[in-house]
Amino acid sequence: MKHLNFAKKISDLRENLNMTQSDFGKKLGVSNRAVSKWENEISYPSIDSIYKMCKLFNVNIEYFFSNIEEEREDNSKENTMPTIRELYKIGRGPSSSHTMGPEKACLMFKKKHPEADSFKVVLFGSLAQTGEGHRTDYAIEQAFLPKKVEIEFDCITKDLPHPNTLDIYAYENGVQCAFIRVCSVGGGQILIEGEKLVENENLYPLHKFSDMADYCREKNMRLWQYVEECEGEDIREFIALIWEEMKNSIKNGLNDSGNLPGKLNVQKKAQYLFRQQHMDESEQTRENRLVCSYAYAVSEQNACGEKIVTAPTCGASGVLPAVLYYIQQKRNFSDEDIYRALETAALIGNIVKTNASISGAECGCQAEVGTACAMASAALAELYNMSLEQIEYAAEIAIEHHLGLTCDPIYGLVQIPCIERNAVAAMRAINAVNLANFLTDSRKISFDLVVQTMYETGKDLSRHYRETSEGGLAKLYK
User: Fold this and answer.
1) What's the gap between Cα 101 and its chain centre?
2) Which CATH architecture has domain 2-59?
3) How many helices (H) and strands (E) does the chain have?
4) CATH of domain 86-192
5) pLDDT tens by residue, 185-235
6) Most exposed among 17, 77, 377, 449, judged by the fewest C-beta atoms under 10 Å?
């Protein structure tokens, strides 16, 4: 794990708090000699110690498992951002963190150990508590076919590196031959203890909106142009595929009817909303109805385990396509216009993912639907050719007014309140852009500040309201 540069990361964080190695060790329940060994690369901290450091220093676990070695001139940590291909992912729902992430980990593990004839997966935290509703067990079983897999739901263990933690064991002739611990951190991304994520190529030298905005002003460019500068010319082809899949999700959802899977017996509503046009319908009512029908369409496809695009997650996948599809139909924006908007939206989502979290199990629904709303607001502002300041303000409004939003899915199903919440957030994104158009000059809160606030708020949320189905609607619904 030397390439992860634990020694420097630990010593920098400790020194920023003016703590001695002895004081630091007491906080973690280890000796000062253990801390000294970590900082001199003689040994490495356990995953439990890393988790405790995340709490102590208020940093995301990705900080310790990313390969970041450069520093700013002011000696603070220099984060970089990965490609937006890691944000927009095409896959099957209902949850990027509970189905796509575990499925990905299991497929990788099975491929790496062809000698194994059976496997065992232990799910912890939110994965254990809502895994059946999210169909995590089904995704794991499908990943290991045709080989046998035993699945355990551990709802007792609490001291975990991430709320979405799973242990995977491989067996040959009944004897364990391999083991990994995996964290599904949201958006289908996984972190494997002790391993570097080679796929997450860090293409963006900047990770804060303020720095990106300054760079764009200096170069006289739009945010989408910054994306293409960092990603390369072939990113447009990828974005075109993403937009096509988003539209397919809407169309498929509008043509679907019946009930969603699961014991809630929720009726699909997208088609009904789309067709309920009144003779005297006002323009505002029509906008609400259509935008919501599109959001319902994608979210219902996700709840059925059909193909969608994470934006930034499965549970929040209906917000961005609903807003963009509606505005394209209304104002005849070209697909090229939409591509630029999607690139702008991805930049916003990536900033949140890098500096905070997009995981409901880590920071509540504010991290998922709140981020999706910010992405949609920024995308719409880009379509209207608004200024950098207006784009920032629209995205900031979107997150600010989702602060504290809990994740409490009934029965662990991504249905209530998730689907309706996507529709409400889509409308809120449009409202945020309208407000930003008038009031940008008088704003006080930056996008970077609200992202930091969202992350700290999420960490302060009781675990009952972070995708465990132990609080809120999930607890009280009978």
Assistant:
1) 11
2) Orthogonal Bundle (1.10)
3) 20, 9
4) 3.30.1330.90
5) 877 888 888 775 544 567 899 999 999 999 999 999 999 999 999 999 899
6) 17
